[in-house]
Amino acid sequence: MMDNRSIGVFDSGLGGLTAVKQIMQELPKESIVYFGDTGRVPYGSRSRETIIKYSKSDMKFLLQKDVKIIVVACGTVSSVALPKLQETVPISLIGVVEAAASAAIAATKNNKIGVIGTKGTIKSGAYEKYIKSENPDIKTFSKACPLFVPLVENGHFDTMVAELVTEEYLTKIKESGVDTLILGCTHYPLLKNTIARFMGDGVTLIDAGAEVAKLLKSTLTEKNMLAEQAAKEQYKYYVSDDIDGFENLGGMFLEQTLESKVEKIDIEKY
Ligand code: DGL
């Protein structure tokens, strides 16, 4: 059994593209419908109720595109609301927490893992709980980094401003001696160079977006739902605000032009 329908992916903005990039590599025959809620970003500082409300409309939009599975490519939504959201849709949801936390557990040698994410993600303790449930000997060190998402959405991937903010946020975690750091928000891998430079060679960075793509591959394989053939328009992107910023920055990150592939929609209708 094959399933040629698209994979739905959503995030509050650009961050989910870190999952898309990896899905393109791991699963080149799959088609993707992406939704970035650029009109309502950031999610990370909002209440659980609002995050659930926004995510429900994001998923409703994707369901209308007849997707076969939805990748919740947002650390905040995955941490705060995944089980609740799964109850509301008839297809499977895959979140980033389990995928990234498992990769970190496999990577650490000194049993010290750092976790960074939005305020909502860190407050939920979702990554830490998963890690402890798998291995109670592992110590975790967490930090919310609320300025990282606006930096990324404004194209500050590798600038002096990004460097300063990174130093401010990550100094304590670095001093704690972690050998593995979970980039628990899907926006953060866009700052990977800056973060890697600051943390140094001895620290493995775990990319939540990339890890969820690997989990997606094993899930689709298990369920016999892989595509045999890509759709005519293999990759399609929708946003809830002007397309310019997303087209430019997203294209830069994906290393391909997004021209004529991005469309603006009114998410309030869903
Ligand atoms: N990419 C989202 C995440 O992974 C960013 C959330 C936000 O919009 O604050 O958490």
Give an account of the 3D structure:
- This protein is α/β, with parallel strands linked by helices.
- The protein contains eleven helices and ten strands.
- The chain has helices spanning 17-26, 48-64, 75-86, 97-107, 119-124, 126-134, 148-153, 160-175, 192-199, 208-222, 243-254; strands at 7-11, 32-36, 69-72, 93-95, 112-117, 139-144, 180-183, 204-207, 235-239, 262-264.
- The radius of gyration is 17 Å and the shape is globular.
- The model has no long low-confidence stretch (mean pLDDT 96).
- The structure holds D-glutamic acid.
Q: Tags for this entry?
A:
globular; 45% helix; 11 helices; binds D-glutamic acid; 270 residues; alpha/beta; 6-stranded parallel beta sheet
Write the topology of this structure.
Blueprint: E1 7-11, H1 17-26, E2 32-36, H2 48-64, E3 69-72, H3 75-86, E4 93-95, H4 97-107, E5 112-117, H5 119-124, H6 126-134, E6 139-144, H7 148-153, H8 160-175, E7 180-183, H9 192-199, E8 204-207, H10 208-222, E9 235-239, H11 243-254, E10 262-264
Parallel strand pairs: 1-2, 1-3, 2-9, 3-4, 5-6, 5-7, 7-8, 9-10
Helix pairs in contact: 1-10, 2-3, 4-6, 4-10, 8-9
Bound molecules: D-glutamic acid.
D-glutamic acid binds at residues 11-12, 15, 41-44, 74-76, 118, 121, 149, 185-187.
